[in-house]
Amino acid sequence: MWGVSESQVTPWGRFLVIFFGYSLFVYIIGTVMVSRFPWMFARVDLMVAVCVEVAGRFPPPASILWCFLWGYVGDVFQGRLWGLHCATYLTVVYLHRLWRGQMNVQSLGYGVLLVGLGVVLQGLAAAAIVGPGFETTAVIMTTVGQAVFSMMISPLVMGPIRWVLSEKNR
Amino acid sequence: MPDWLRRMRLVAVIVAMGGAMLYILSLNFRPPAQMDRLQRTVVETLGPLLHVSRKATQTVEKWVQSYVSLRHVQEENELLKKHRASLESELVRYQEAFLENQRLRRLLDFRDSLQVETVAAEVVVQNAAGWSRTIIVNKGYRHGVQPDMPVVGDEGVVGYVLDVSEQYARVLLLTDRDSAVDALVQRNRVRGILGGVDTDTCELRYVRSNQDVRPGDLVVTSGKDGIFPGGLRLGVVKQVTKDPSALFQQIIVVPTVQLSVLQEVLILKSLPNFPVQWLEGTAKE
Question: Which of B141, B109, B127 is nearest to B266 (CA)?
């Protein structure tokens, strides 16, 4: 029903490590360190990269659950723009489900591009919600900058997930 | 799995997702108030973890900043050390120049008071610790310097010119054993011959035992040896030893000029008329 064969199902232990442990680790890094960078373009949502890997490797219910859980956590600690994180992660999962037939979803390039797209969507949605307080050029520049920066560092975030869930490592 | 059950599950998932999304979106329209139970759970659970992580990050950040700052301070310290060394050497040069200026000023005053043609010379080589106590000065025949010319400092007699070259002259110091200067005890005009003993002292020889010479007496040139004009300060009596069986007493004299640290001298080219203050009144100094 979800398009995931039995061979693709991740063992529970590793699944939980990624679902809770690694996601929490990345979230803490993002909240404690990345959010304190002095440059706006560097303050990116690292969880988008985790979401891309989760979407590609977890069964859809688990992916959706992940999106709601960590999206909600992100929203709670942000305290405003409720639903932005959830919606972004769900959109990423949806886009992955949409493109998985046409693209090589296992490649790193695909993951990086999807991360960039997710960050762009998130930035544009945030700008649209926050309203006319920002200049369009500034919003676009910041969003593009964040997308590029996210794409640059996403392999570092996605790498450990691929390593933990790799066939060789089982 | 039966088809209806599969459909039911799909419906349940969609309903759950929709409900969750509606709940989350509804939070946008809630007036700010106390967090609901779910939010409190998330915040209370992850809050301490984030707090600890933040503290740890700040600590690491401080370490890094301290390290970077320390590196910066070290570099600055090195720079300041170099700067200080440069300033210190400059200060030493200034101090040297200041002292030289003072010495030259005293020498100039002395020369003016002598009212005689003189040649100022710098000590090039000091050989006071050897067997012969001589110095080499940087003025010679070309400057009008000739053998037997008196050599003085601002505090008194240094010696006399032994021999000369084109540019340099050798001066025999008072403290040389072969040096002999006709001298007087300024207080009572007791006469003797001043010769060298060691690097720092001289002896006033050939003074009979019945003559009155006391420690502290000033010894000056008599002007009768054909080299030195009369009245130039030679030294101060340091010690007098009288032996009843001996014909002469032993009188140790310390030169008024510190010969071991001599740097500039005046060579007298003609016999001067000495000012009164150089002749009298400084016996107890």
Answer: B109
